[in-house]
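HUMAN: Mind making up another protein with tokenized structure?

ASSISTANT:
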Amino acid sequence: MKSSLLFLCVLFLAGCSSLPKELASSQTTTLIEYDAFVTAAKKDETAEVRLGGVIARIDNLKDTTRIEIVNLPISSSGKPDLSQKPNGRFVVYLNGFVDPVTYSVGRLVTVLGLSTGIEEANVGEFLYPFPVIKASALHLWQIQEYVISNDINMSYMPCTGARCLHQRSIESRRGKVVQEVK
């Protein structure tokens, strides 16, 4: 009995949040914080990096694709955290052609690759120092939205006055939109 309960607990925890296979690292240390990545890039240190964020721009060059990403902190499962503020930008280079419709501006992405230094480019008219990643893997995420509504049946409430009728009409229809990265 104990062994089957332990097996179910392990199975449950494994299914809760796991890193996509293509983002798994073979290195013992992988940089997952933007500030540590910027420091390594400024020192021209080659380090494995796993970062995520929102695609801000995509350019298909002759043999490679350049993707500019606004960094968002990522969870242990590699998902960008929508509740956090962006803390910088970085550039990713991929070999070959990447369809700009699939990897469109505004999509969430997580990348695994090697830091290769700093590249200066414009954001509008501002010259910005972009840390660069030579990507070995990319994972696109989707934002799923759903509504949680407060549909309480107010007929069970003992209040019957005019104030209660107004309260019933407003409170029974309140809800909120929840965004979740999948």
User: Anything to note?
Assistant: The longest helix spans residues 2-16. The helical segments are 2-16, 34-42, 162-171.
